[in-house]
Amino acid sequence: MSQITRDEVAHLARLARLALADDELDGLAQQLDVILDAVAAIGQVTDAADVPPTTHAVPVENVTRPDVVTPSLPRDVVLAGAPEAEQDRFRVPRILDEEA
Amino acid sequence: MTAYEQALAEFAPVLGLETHVELGTASKMFCGCATTFGAEPNTQVCPVCLGLPGALPVVNEKAVESTIRIGLALHCTIATWCRFARKNYFYPDMPKNFQTSQYDEPLCVDGHLDVEVDGEVVRVEIERVHLEEDTGKTLHVGGATGRITGASHSLVDYNRAGIPLVEIVTRPVAGTGVRAAAVAKAYVTELRDLLRGLDVSDVRMEQGSMRCDVNTSLHRAGEPWGTRTETKNVNSLRSVERAVRSEVERQAEVLRRGERVVQETRHFSEATGATSPGRVKDDAADYRYFPEPDLVPVAPDPAWVAALRAALPAPPSVRRKQLVAQLGLSDLDAQAMVNAGVLDVVLATVEAGAPAAEARNWWLGALAQRANETGVEPAELPVTPAQVARVVALVAEGTLNAGLARQVLDGVLAGEGEPDDVVAARGLAVVSDTGALGEAVDAALAAHPDVADKVRGGKVQAVGALVGAVMRATRGQADAATVRALLLERLGVEG
Amino acid sequence: MTDLTRLTAAETAAAVASREVSAVEVAQAHLDRIAAVDDRVHAFLHVDAEGALAQAARVDAGELTGPLAGVPLALKDVLCTEGVPTTAGSRILEGWRPPYDATVTARLRAAGVVVLGKTNMDEFAMGSSTEHSAYGPTHNPWDLDRIPGGSGGGSAAAVAAYEAPLAIGTDTGGSIRQPSAVTGTVGVKPTYGGVSRYGLIAFSSSLDQAGPVARTVLDAALLHEAIGGHDPRDSTSIAAPVPPVVEAARQADVRGLRVGVVRELTGDGYEPGVQARFDEAVQALVELGATVTAVSCPHFVHALPAYYLIAPSEASSNLARFDAVRYGLRVGDDGERGLEEVMALTRAQGFGPEVKRRIVLGTYALSSGYYDAYYGQAQKVRTLITRDFTAAFAEADVLVSPTTPGVAFPLGAKLSDPLAMYRQDLATIPSNLYGGPAMSVPAGLSDGLPVGLQVMAPVQRDDLLYRVGAALEAARPFAPTPLQWETA
Ligand SMILES: [Mg+2]
Ligand SMILES: [Zn+2]
Q1: C or N: which end of chain A has fewer Cβ atoms within 10 Å?
Q2: How close B383 comes to chain C (CA, Å)?
Q3: pTM of the shown model
Q4: In the CATH scheme, what architecture does the domain A6-47 have?
């Protein structure tokens, strides 16, 4: 059975901001189908049902820093790596999205 | 009956409030960058808050402490173990394209805040209080209004990105009836006063350090709750009230037409007092939350939480009663201040050292007038009780007179800094040095020989015109009493 | 005169410390070596001759001292180096010069280590052959037509080809150990949290760990000690001293040590030559005084699917920051297109096929409706794998297996079959999921190509790896890289 459709891949690509060409979508849909087939086996691990998930390999808790100001980067260094800067800010193409 | 009252006679409202508060920590949530408001763009950024490849977050312990104190003050249960989560979505003001927030494991849950409306107590239940990080600020260029629509491009400043942000979410508030708008405003006001009392934030809505999203829905009695809209951008107490009113009126219209309210984000316009549609809430919006692997769990020590609880200040309502009693204010006086929304700031001004009468006069007088002119509550003016107290002190010590004091406060309101900075920059101190005033007095006498003669002739009250001329010449900086004495002395007349 | 590029790191450091040779001479010898062979090996993406010689001069001036002062090193291009290009093997970061040093970089500099340059890798460390680098593959010094392993193929190849005595790799699912196995070098993935991740460009935050690559076990230990230890900038860093790895490497003693052979990581799926070298190495450990038992870790068979859900999920989020706004590539900004489109075009062109495959896979595994079945379930299986380790460590002090199922395969052989590529990491992935340390140490040759033995130890017992590795190394000295192509 097919695990994932081309439309689903297109939706995921949009979520992930990847402008994939049609042939890329087709190829990816096929590959993901194979990969998902292989990883879906994990659903059959029945003794995982009552087990807590592990999110951190080594259990450590309460790591914090004191509320102390440390130096920031110089602005010219900050903007040096930017694709485009203007008025000491990062310049981006117009945002077509609605206001967030 | 107003349209609003009409609407709520016909439909029952349900409100929900989500309030974001920037904590007043010295450094950011996950890095040591400063949080100073109004700094030059992109000068308070580092690899962490810029989301540079490889950079990692470390939690600010003061931010956790402040959030727990807020939770405790709101009668919440504090989590014994919780985690941060990543909320994944793309937006250019978010350096990592995920917001480090909390999802199903917030620091504080299940609290409440009691607010008083028309002498009646309404309990607003708090669902959760969680900790997250703020985003950067985007400037839209090329559009007519500085808004996103029509802009040719945008510019991003990340100074605000990563400032600790506490989100306080209420449970749905039902059964308020016609008081819905007043309850919403009273809740935000009470929350602001509570946060100010905790000293965890400067809670300046006009600077964005406290921001409100208002959810509103209407339904007919006996029917299930209606579809809600979420009004964003509500950045003053007055706007909270107006946003509810306008949304109630609008939804009632929609429902009367037999149409359905669309679930969407709406924007509140300060100019029109109305809301306008934003994004249609995309059901496909999928934030793909998962536990933040770069941060370890937070497990507040119960002993620490108990100590924080024990050290909480009294809630605003109790503090108000105590202070009112201490100052010997009459019930009427106190009620007038409550109605004008200045009781808390008056008390804070007194706590900062001003005499009660002076504090009361400033907030009910000149400051109330300025607030009215700009359409905000007096307490939302960009001046702190401490600054008002300082101006009062400057008057008391004779550095300022009443007119100058108003000019100093105008300077503070205009963002020119502390009162002493404004005095220095504008050169506003009272001139009482008689030598310096002598020239102005002589000039006034020379310019108005007729008035001088009248005074010499016994019409002493005519000296007022000469005092006025000297005051104008010294741009108000002279001490009027000294000027009058000097004039009479020159004219050889007994005051 | 001795060829300075053939010395071990320990020998080099001693020679520099005693002023037998200058650090500048050592650095120059390695820069010459790189100039001579790297057009064929392609271990380096960027050589920083100027920076290396300046650092060496500081060592010679006595400004920097320590057990590795003056020793050259090749740094995987996934660790940030202030002012020196850092690409993570990706087009999307081409030309980016970080404004800061990773903690590992800073510690190396402070220790007087001479960073020669940045090494090639699979893009964002996603791969097992270094063929997924946007800048072309690295070639295995044992046979230039074969892969050097991945993702850290550049680091392993640099060490095997005598371009550097030391290298830093990073290991998310085997990216230090598998390249070491197929290039005949020693590679160690330290305990998760043992080496700071600050400045390490994240692939999968809960699995990534930087570690040493060297030609000898002692050299690896010296490097491990130099880069390890607590870092307050990394919340997941362990606040404890580095385990005594150098001491353990010097002891090289396995007498009385209980060695567990993991049943699920041998036999089927492993090439006969690999299995044979592994069995001989285990026999050698017995002769050295270790006791050997078979242990079972039944959930290890699920490690691969768990890994291929967890790692892509975290990666899909970690790689979201490459958006054409603050740094790196921007494509298609013609003044007409909006930001969202420019972002999507940039990411589509800036990322290679394997990275895009994993981003989409991870986006899927985290999306609502699938989270519980995929990401959530994988995290539960991770718990079961950890429990398997805990149970096995009750019976054995260390666990062993072949590092890889086979020897280095020809370039291109598995490029069109992602699953076949993923299976390279069958044996190495469990330690990443568990968080414990693991080493690959040379175990001999199969058909003239190196085979690696993997040693796995409990969390924070990195020292045990070095005891086993050093004992095996002493008992069975391994052939140096033949480098037949150099004389041909
Ligand atoms: Mg929020
Ligand atoms: Zn910062």
Answers
A1: N
A2: 36
A3: 0.90
A4: Orthogonal Bundle (1.10)
